[in-house]
Structures are given as structure tokens and as C-alpha cells.
Amino acid sequence: MNTNLMQSVKVLKGIGDETAELLADMNIVTIKDLLEHFPYRYEDYRLRDLADVKHDERITVEGKVHSEPSLARFGKNKSRMTVRLLVGRYLVQAIIFNQPYLKGKIKISETVTVTGKWDQHRMAITVSEMHFGENRAGKMFEPVYALRGSLTMKSMRKYIAQAFNLYGKDIEETLPEGLIAKYRLPDRRDALKIMHFPDLPEDVKKARRRFVYEEFLAFQLKMQALRKLEREQSPGIVQNYDLAKLKAFIDALPFPLTGAQKRVVNEILTDMKSPYRMNRLLQGDVGSGKTVVAAIGLYASVTSGRQGALMVPTEILAEQHAASLKELFGPNGVRCELLTSSVKGKARKEILAALAAGEVDILIGTHALIQEEVAFHRLGFVITDEQHRFGVEQRRVLREKGENPDVLFMTATPIPRTLAITVFGEMDVSVIDEMPAGRKTIETYWAREDMLDRVLAFMEKELRKGRQAYVICPLIEESDKLDVQNAIDVHASLTHYFQDRFTAGLMHGRLHSSEKEEVMRAFAANEIQVLVSTTVVEVGVNVPNATVMVIYDAERFGLAQLHQLRGRVGRGSDQSYCILLAEPKSEVGKERMKIMTETNDGFVVSEKDLELRGPGDFFGKKQSGIPDFKVADMVHDYRALETAREDAAKLVQSRAFWESPEYASLREGLIEAGILTGEKLD
Ligand code: ADP
Ligand code: MG
């Protein structure tokens, strides 16, 4: 790294301790940091024709003053001035806040240039900058930077210009020539110059493309290098499964595997046979048939003389998985056992002893599986379901219960590909993107709250046919702050509404686990027809006779979560329905409800959710593991992300990457991240 660029920003004229501190707040310490403080947008001062502009756009127009300005003052320092301007053939209203002193300067028939936000409906512009006379002097296209405290845009522009003039010559290329030529990218110095001092928007596009690729490549190289090192440093076990037995098991299933299931099974088996430890994420929408894939993997491990473990987040889910696996394995001699905190005393001791002796082939359970007392005889394959609900630590403990067992993470939360390769970039990803044949799609409707009567009437119609319904509410109890329906209230009013015709049950997270189980049992046995619940039923619950899902305050849920909830119905042979009760306030809120009614495909839902909410909100900010890119945007630049991933994967496999000077600067990134030591690797 060039030492000039590593100097403190204080070497620049005008930057003293105080300014340096403000800059440091934004992680700008060195000249290099300052030069890489990219504009987050550009102010375009080129004059626009009002015929071409869209509502809410920021624009600059030139016009003739057509009326005396009228000024209204309110409060101590607040004012609002309006003045009519003739812009081309349009008469528009210019609105200027808190600059009363301009009143005397605005003269009828004179020309002014204004910049601001355009309101198409009112034919008005909210002015943020105003210049008297034609054509403002200076640049037509200027960078806008993030600022802190007393920093001004003008001084930030000056610091950056100064830094570039003094040290621009020291900027070095970081990408290898081959890739620059391949993608026709501008070199680093030119690109930096254009980002800060562009003439035209088109130029910025080209320069930006370079930095997007550079950021993604650096990030993906870290992921791919980690993946490679992890593989090489934790040799796995070669599992010589019995193919004939596996085939017989698959043939005996009550249904043929879908194409996607077959593909994914092959990916898993290839990993198991390889000397590397499997580290794979299996994604598949609700109902896509992950359980049977898991069963085949577990069975493969059993036929190679090892044990398998399946860890799930809740007891209900553990019980259901245990039941379906026992059914799938039926009479073929594989012993499956369930271990949760409810399995106690003698039964527990027996299971633990049989497990340690290697008599239990497959153990299914909650995090009870990772307690110290649980010892496997020879653990070969570990699956965690709904893996994002477990912490990294819990996953590690389970993995260490065997000697380098193969590990599969399963999730029914469809993660958009862009996010999957970002957050889980160091894993291999398998996707079941096909539903078993003959599935009915769930009909989804969005209803306003004033349509509740009709919704209830519809529910009653279904209940009369012998079906059951879920009613989901966002909170347990009434909260002062949030005006939301709560499960307890809704339960009371539905009990009243259905009188003695149908029974409503209540389920929420504050119930004791034995109470929860009793409610679930009663619902599964159809002793309860309507289950009013918070989102605790989200994962895994399987009651095929339930055909109606009503969700209160649906706008409060994420789309991925709504999709999960919807997946509780549509599990039997009857047509199922999902009704979203929602009063979204914003356009985005309305758009989200519409998406739910238009598609049943979890991947489409999650892609849209990502587009609308952005990557930070998708997983919840804290645990997302998504890096802060300076220029790149994972959603909009996803093609570049994919390209960078492919390139990174190829690079880490090549000898040149680890040895040739051409790649030194990329390797430096890995050293900085602590992935590599400074020494030369073999
Ligand atoms: P999920 O991916 O949500 O865990 P499951 O594994 O629970 O899905 O499967 C949902 C249902 O689909 C189960 O009843 C299962 O038996 C059935 N199923 C799985 N694979 C197939 C298939 N290839 N053809 C038909 N039905 C299948
Ligand atoms: Mg499942």
C-alpha cells in the first residue's frame, strides 16, 4: 500500500483536529479513506423540460417570475413563501421555506433558476436552491456526500479535491489486468476521479461499475478463501454408503422423488462420499419435501456404519419430525429416537445409553441434543432444521459431537439467491425449487378491516364443511403503544361469535409448554375448530384438515413470515385459503399485500421482500452478517455479485492467485481480514 495514501487526513489544508474527529466518526482517517468516501448521489443541475419529469424527482428548471411572492410566517423562525414561475409553457408554483429575506429579491419578469423536488399533482416545486439569472455558474453535475456535524458539502468537496490533486498519482490498481480487460473496467485512478468529479451521469455509471465489482470480488474472495481453507483444514469422513440399500429405500417411498429432490439428494451424497466435510445449506419452500431428503441423507450415513442427528428449534417440530421419520423408515430396521427436555428419567437414560452404544441410528430433538450428557457412538451426519434460529455456537457444539461429521442446514425460509451467496457464501447451497405434483395453490386474499363480517362468514362456511381454521394475531395482549388486535381479545370475540357451533382455542408463547401441547393436540384431533394464535404456530405444524388461515394486522409481518404462516394450510387435498386482514398505510405496504395475493412461490415472495425492504431488514439487522458495501447494492447489482462470486471461486482454485504478483493486492485484502497470514501460502 502506498504510504502517501496512508497519511492522516490532517496533512490536508483546512483539516485540523476538530474536522479530523468528525471525519473519523465516518471512518475516514487516512487520505485513502477520504478518496474512497464516495458520493451517495449526484446533484444534476442540467435544466429539465417539465414535460419529461416524473413526480417526486429532484429537478432544476429555469423560469420567469410571474407573480409577487407571498410570504406566510409561522412560529418564531418559520416561513413559507410561494411564487408563480412561468417555466416553458407551464405555470408552476415555487415553494420556499424559511428564507423570508429572498422576498425583496424576487422581481416580476426576471429569470430565476430553481432546484428542488417536483410535485406533479400540484405542479409545484419545493425549492432547495435558487439562483437569480439564467444558467447558474459552475458545474452542472455535482457529487453529494454524507456529512457529519458541522461539516459542510462545500468543505467536503474541497478536501476531496485537494486530496486528489496531491495524492491522486499515488492511487494504485488493485484488480488484475486480466479482469480489467475482461470486463472493460476503467483503471482505479480514473474511476476514482470520475466518481468525485464527473462531467456526465453516464461517466459515473462506468466508474461505479468498477467499484461495485471490486467490492463484490473482495468480499467473495474472503468467502471463497474461507471455504477453501475450512475444507482443507477440517478433513471430513468418506462415507461409503450402501447405494443398493438407498435405492431400495427410495423405491419403497409412497411417491417418486421430484426432479429437484433427486438433484439435491445427489449433491448431498457426493459431499458425503468426498473426503471433505460437507457444509451445505438446503433451501426449500414449505411443503417442498425436505424431510424425505433429510431422511435419505441420514439413512446414507447409517448404511455407512454411522449415526445421524436432526436438530430442530421446537418440541412440536421435533415430535413431528420423529413421527415422520419413524414412519418413513418403518420396518427397515433403522432405529430413530426422540430426545427433548420432556423425555425424562428412565426413558432418557435408556436412550442415552443406547446412543452411546451405537444402537440408536438416528437421534431427533431440540437443543437437548447439544447437552453434555449426550454422547454419540459414531456421529457421521448432522442436520439442523430452520438453522437461522440456532446460534453459530449451538451449531458448532452439535458438529463437534462427532469427528468432522457432514453437516446440512435446512431452511424453509426461502432466501433470495443474492442474499444466500452473500450471507452463506462460505457454504454450498442446494435448492429444492419444485413442488411435488398435484399440489393445490393456496388462494390468498387481502381484506380491509371493514370486511371482517364477510371474512367470518366465509370461515363459517368452511367450518361447516368440517374444516378447521387458524387465526393469527401479532401480539398476545393489548398494548398501549400498538393498536393491534391481540390473540386474547380475538379469541374472546370469536368464541362469542361462533357460540356453541364451533370451538375456538388459544395458543401463544406465554403458555406453559404442556398447555401448548394440549392445545395443539386438541386442534389436531379437531376438538378445536378455530385456533387463535400468535406466530408460535409458524414453523412445522401440520394439521392437513385446516384450510383457512386468517392473519390480523398482516401489514405488520414480513413477507417471508406471512408466507411461512400461509404454509400452515394447503397441506391436505382440499382447496385452502389465506386471508390477510390489513390496512397498510404506505404504497410499499399495499404493494406487499398485493405480492402475497399474486404468488405462492416463496422465492418470488422473498425476492420481492428484499427489493422492498432492503437487505438489512430482511434478516433483522443485527445478525444479518451482511457487510456494508460502500458503492455496491446487493439487490440492484446482483448480476455483478454473481459474476464476482464465480470469479472468486475460480481464483482461489488457481495457483496464480496465491503466487503471482498480479494478485498481490487482492491477497492483501485477505491478510487484512485475518484470513491469511502474511507468509506465502503453498
Ligand atoms: P417441508 O419441505 O416443508 O419440510 P415436507 O417434507 O414436510 O415438506 O413434505 C410435505 C409433504 O409432501 C409431506 O406430506 C411429504 O410426504 C410429501 N412429499 C414429499 N415429497 C414428495 C414427492 N416427491 N411427491 C409427493 N409428495 C411428497
Ligand atoms: Mg419440514
Automatic annotation (TrEMBL):
Record keywords: ATP-binding, DNA damage, DNA recombination, DNA repair, DNA-binding, Helicase, Hydrolase, Isomerase, Nucleotide-binding
User: Which Pfam family, an example, fits this chain?
Assistant: RecG_dom3_C
Gene3D superfamilies from the UniProt entry: Nucleic acid-binding proteins (2.40.50.140), P-loop containing nucleotide triphosphate hydrolases (3.40.50.300)
The Helicase ATP-binding domain covers 271-432
Q: Does the keyword Chaperone apply?
A: no
Recorded superkingdom: Bacteria
Q: What does it catalyze? A: ATP + H2O = ADP + phosphate + H(+); Couples ATP hydrolysis with the unwinding of duplex DNA by translocating in the 3'-5' direction
InterPro entries to which the protein is assigned, alphabetical: ATP-dep_DNA_helicase_RecG, DEAD/DEAH_box_helicase_dom, Helicase_ATP-bd, Helicase_C-like, NA-bd_OB-fold, P-loop_NTPase, RecG/Mfd, RecG_dom3_C
List GO molecular-function terms, semicolon-separated. 3'-5' DNA helicase activity; ATP binding; ATP hydrolysis activity; DNA binding
Question: What's the EC number here?
Answer: 5.6.2.4
* Boundaries of every Helicase C-terminal domain copy: 451-611
Q: Which SMART domains match?
A: DEXDc, HELICc
* UniProt-listed GO biological process terms: DNA recombination; DNA repair
Q: Identify the enzyme class.
A: isomerase
Q: What does this protein do?
A: Plays a critical role in recombination and DNA repair. Helps process Holliday junction intermediates to mature products by catalyzing branch migration. Has replication fork regression activity, unwinds stalled or blocked replication forks to make a HJ that can be resolved. Has a DNA unwinding activity characteristic of a DNA helicase with 3'-5' polarity.
Which family is this sequence assigned to?
Answer: Belongs to the helicase family. RecG subfamily.
* Full protein name: ATP-dependent DNA helicase RecG
- Classification of source organism: Bacteria, Bacillati, Bacillota, Bacilli, Bacillales
